[in-house]
Design goal:
Two copies of one chain form a homodimer. With about 280 residues, chain A is of the alpha/beta class. In chain A, about 35% of the residues lie in helices and about 25% in strands. Chain A is built from nine helices and nine strands. The longest helix of chain A is centred in the C-terminal third of the chain and has 20 residues. The interface between A and B is medium-sized, with 25 and 25 residues. Chains A, B: Serine hydrolase involved in the detoxification of formaldehyde.
């Protein structure tokens, strides 16, 4: 583990680290915020997954989350959004390839070689964090847009591994919207039955256990009706009685101004679940 | 006035506006955060001046200040750091020309034509803000690094115009450090007596009135001993009995992680002075 950045922040420490990640076959950058409590005791971990075009930097510079993590004694971990490197496949467009891993395990060439972000976030990253920092073993997950999709699908596939899940402006039905259909066809191939493991709406229909779930969605979000469509997840949850706290936030858009406005409430929500 | 950006944020509104600024002879971008209280009542104004290389964007995306402005009912105004445009002089180096206005009124060619940032921030900008938004007429000022120098010198030259002043990692003695000496020689010419009006240490020596003044400085700041040297202002204040609350913050560097960690305390400090 290399430390790329180390900065004092809210009496804790904001790190950016770099580690060799076997599953994605490249060096991954990860932001780790250690709250002041981490100096003397083990802390639970909250994983943040970012959206399209982001790196590990966006969340730590723009969300203002460290204040709340320091308040609640939670370690924040924010990985990059795709594998990176000269030998990693890419394609034209901000919504596929680098910066657009979509938190799936790709099966198709040329993507399968490195685009294994589901396995990385579910298994390799938590093992790495637990091995290198003093954690309680309790974890939760949240994210934004593509990262909200990642958080929801990862928690839904592993309901006993996460104390809670939340999302800002998530893509809840990737198999039904342009962003998801484009990359799933590329990463997973034409057989749509393989896509269902990465679709929150499909996953709630077969959920074995309920993870406390909150979603905040701005009503002025430019992607609301085309790519996000939270009403599809609401309907899927209602059909099976899956509890969902969906909050439509009047006038907010898709940006970090929205995330910053509500990240404190999300961290408090997770901190409560992580204490149980 | 053109509105370039409008975003909901902490139940208030983050604007970026563009206006024709006569004194600097160009179109200036200014960020204005209106707290929720501004919808129903007049609010006081807190001016933020940014550091070298910044635009009006850095503070509004990275400091997390809107939360506290919304809490205290304060309008935040953050202008760009220099005149901009195809006909505005520039030179090699991040520390002179565009992004480096240094909050002075330049007298030398080619700078004098547009680099009138002292007059802009002191006179034209407040007049513009008071004409376009419902303000109480009370104002305070703060800033970072070059902007900390700007805030201190503007408040010291106009002690009755500002309820309070504060700074993060300010350049307190520009006439004695490399950053200041380089640009003052270019913008103001070789006669160093003209530089004194823009040097906080020189200004406190002749202060007619005391403005409540707070400075936070990180001990791990990479510019602390070369460009910032807060001990020079501390000594200047002690010589004349000017009250200064200088706080050395252990382990913090020069970045927005430092600003974010203490901006809440600064806004509370100003809000109290603005209520009087």
């Amino acid at each position: 583990m290399d430390i790329v950045e180390r900065r004092r922040c809210f009496r804790g420490t904001q790190l950016v680290i770099r580690h060799a990640a076997a599953r994605v076959g490249c060096t991954m950058h990860v932001a780790v915020f250690l709250p002041p409590q981490a100096e003397t005791s083990a802390c639970p971990v909250l994983y943040w997954l970012s959206g399209l075009t982001c790196t590990e930097q966006n969340f730590i510079t723009k969300a203002g989350a460290q204040r709340y993590a320091a308040e609640h004694g939670v370690i924040l971990v924010a990985p990059d959004t795709s594998p990176r490197g000269a030998d990693v496949a890419d394609a034209e467009g901000y919504d596929i390839g680098l910066g657009a891993g979509f938190y799936v395990n790709a099966t198709e060439a040329p993507w399968a070689a490195h685009y294994q972000m589901a396995a990385y976030v579910e298994r390799e990253l938590p093992a790495f964090i637990d091995a290198n920092f003093r954690t309680t073993g309790r974890q939760s997950i949240l994210g934004h847009s593509m990262g909200g999709h990642g958080a929801l699908t990862i928690a839904l596939r592993n309901p006993r591994a996460y104390a809670s899940v939340s999302a800002f402006s998530p893509i809840v039905a990737p198999t039904q919207v342009p962003w998801g259909r484009k990359v799933f066809a590329a990463y997973l191939g034409p057989d749509e039955s393989t896509w269902q493991a990465y679709d929150a709406c499909a996953l709630v229909a077969n959920a074995e256990a309920h993870v406390p779930m909150r979603i905040d969605q701005g009503t002025a979000d430019e992607f609301l009706h085309t790519q996000l469509r939270p009403e599809l997840l609401q309907a899927a949850c209602q059909r099976v009685g899956y509890p969902l706290d969906l909050r439509m936030q009047e006038g907010y858009d898709h940006s970090y101004y929205f995330i910053a406005s509500f990240i404190g409430e999300h961290i408090a929500f997770h901190a409560e679940a992580l204490r149980l």
